[in-house]
Amino acid sequence: MPTTVDCPTCQTQVEWSDNSPYKPFCSERCKLIDLGEWANEEKSIPGEPAVVPEQVPGNDDIY
């Protein structure tokens, strides 16, 4: 029996195999929705940032 996972976006069952080109997503649409959520900072990985922008040399003119 093939392994299945839930699509992170819509929770549809997805077969984890070479026959599923968008795994773990069920479709390109769900993949792009997820990418957009990351780009809009609706999703993030918890923790402190590796580099605080104010501490990067040469970034005085950005802020």
Automatic annotation (TrEMBL):
<dbReference type="Pfam" id="PF03884">
    <property type="entry name" value="YacG"/>
</dbReference>
<dbReference type="GO" id="GO:0008270">
    <property type="term" value="F:zinc ion binding"/>
</dbReference>
<feature type="binding site">
    <location>
        <position position="30"/>
    </location>
    <ligand>
        <name>Zn(2+)</name>
    </ligand>
</feature>
<comment type="similarity">
    <text>Belongs to the DNA gyrase inhibitor YacG family.</text>
</comment>
<feature type="region of interest" description="Disordered">
    <location>
        <begin position="44"/>
        <end position="63"/>
    </location>
</feature>
<feature type="binding site">
    <location>
        <position position="26"/>
    </location>
    <ligand>
        <name>Zn(2+)</name>
    </ligand>
</feature>
<keyword id="KW-0862">Zinc</keyword>
<protein>
    <recommendedName>
        <fullName>DNA gyrase inhibitor YacG</fullName>
    </recommendedName>
</protein>
<feature type="binding site">
    <location>
        <position position="7"/>
    </location>
    <ligand>
        <name>Zn(2+)</name>
    </ligand>
</feature>
<dbReference type="InterPro" id="IPR005584">
    <property type="entry name" value="DNA_gyrase_inhibitor_YacG"/>
</dbReference>
<comment type="subunit">
    <text>Interacts with GyrB.</text>
</comment>
<comment type="function">
    <text>Inhibits all the catalytic activities of DNA gyrase by preventing its interaction with DNA. Acts by binding directly to the C-terminal domain of GyrB, which probably disrupts DNA binding by the gyrase.</text>
</comment>
<dbReference type="InterPro" id="IPR013088">
    <property type="entry name" value="Znf_NHR/GATA"/>
</dbReference>
<dbReference type="GO" id="GO:0008657">
    <property type="term" value="F:DNA topoisomerase type II (double strand cut, ATP-hydrolyzing) inhibitor activity"/>
</dbReference>
<keyword id="KW-0479">Metal-binding</keyword>
<feature type="binding site">
    <location>
        <position position="10"/>
    </location>
    <ligand>
        <name>Zn(2+)</name>
    </ligand>
</feature>
<dbReference type="GO" id="GO:0006355">
    <property type="term" value="P:regulation of DNA-templated transcription"/>
</dbReference>
